[in-house]
Amino acid sequence: MLVNLSPLTETMRDALRRLVEQIAEHDGISPVNESALLGIEGLRDADFFFMGLRSDPYGFVVVDERDKTLLVGVHPGHRGDGVATELLAEALANYPGYSVWAFGTLPGATELATRAGLTPVRALLRMERPLGAIAVPAAPRGTGSRRTAPSSASRWWPSTPPPSRTTRSRAGSPSPSSTS
């Protein structure tokens, strides 16, 4: 069953969070970005398409209205069954001007894009290196650090005094804020 909901019920929000976590655990990368997560939480405008039960969906599309993007996710146990194809076709029919994002070039993503008539326009590379490879420079001789209590810090970094009640503007006349 294909369901379009917006906003999400708490049941669907919990189920979608679980599905996103399961997909990320299997694929090693989340199927959604931070903007889509904000949509799931109801903190950003988003629409949703689902396949499966409300309490146990196995496929989804997040329609991110701010970024005008579609983000698709399918549970690994339901891949290859046409779930993503059906979800994406429905989402593209309803949001024809939106872009489709894929995080990671996962098996099936290229085939899905081809079936949907999509072509890659940009690639995102995630590059890393071990933190142990970064050399930390030694502090110059004669320098060091020490903890400073907030009360003693004010002796070294004085705060700006509060503004006076007779603040003058650049032209020399009293500013409107100082005349009240």
Spell out the CATH superfamily of the domain at 2-115: Gcn5-related N-acetyltransferase (GNAT)
- Give me the number of helical elements: 5
Q: How would you classify the helix and strand content by structural class?
A: alpha+beta
- Low-pLDDT runs: 175-180
State the CATH architecture of the domain at 2-115.
3-Layer(aba) Sandwich
The ordered string of helix (H) and strand (E) elements is EHHEEEHEHH
What is the general shape?
A: elongated
> Biggest β-sheet, characterized?
5 strands, mixed
Overall description:
The chain has 180 residues and is α+β, with helices and mostly antiparallel strands. It has five helices and five strands; from the N terminus they run E-H-H-E-E-E-H-E-H-H. The chain has helices spanning 10-27, 34-40, 83-94, 109-115, 150-156; strands at 2-5, 46-53, 56-64, 69-74, 99-101. The chain has a five-stranded mixed β-sheet, sandwiched between helices. The termini are far apart. Residues 175-180 have low confidence and may be disordered.
Q: What's the short story on this structure?
A:
The protein has 180 residues and is an alpha+beta fold.
Helix-strand layout with pairing:
Layout: E1 2-5, H1 10-27, H2 34-40, E2 46-53, E3 56-64, E4 69-74, H3 83-94, E5 99-101, H4 109-115, H5 150-156
Structural descriptors:
single chain; 180 residues; alpha+beta; Aminopeptidase; 5-stranded mixed β-sheet; 5 helices; 5 strands; disordered C terminus
